[in-house]
Amino acid sequence: HFAMVMVNKAPADEIQLALDVPPEIAAALVKYRQDKGPFKSSDDVKKVPGIDGAKVDAATSRLVF
């Protein structure tokens, strides 16, 4: 059972747990939203370089935008 994660506000460690990604990918996600603005959908999250789209899809129901 995983908690909901607010992808536009959550710190990298929370994102790492929610999406089951390595720390550097979680950090890249945080940097991406800082550089390009808030994510609007899981498709935006999948644009982050290095992220596994299948993991994003698996976690979509827990992502809050």
- The order of strands across the largest sheet is 1-2
Computed structural class = mainly alpha
Number of strands: 2
Mean pLDDT metric: 94
Radius of gyration: 10 Å
Q: How are helices and strands ordered from N to C?
A: EHHHHE
| Separate helix tally | 4
Strand content: 5-15%
**What percent of the residues sit in helical stretches (DSSP H or I)?**
40-55%
Shape: globular
User: How is the biggest beta sheet arranged?
Assistant: 2 strands, parallel
Write a structural description.
By secondary structure, the protein is mostly helical. It starts with a strand and ends with a strand. The chain is built from 4 helices and 2 strands; from the N terminus they run E-H-H-H-H-E. The model has no long low-confidence stretch (mean pLDDT 94). Helix 1 crosses helix 2.
Key phrases:
single chain, 65 residues, mainly alpha, 51% helix, 6% strand, globular
Short description:
It is built from 4 helices and 2 strands, in the order E-H-H-H-H-E. It has helices at residues 12-19, 23-36, 42-45, 53-59; strands at residues 5-6, 63-64.
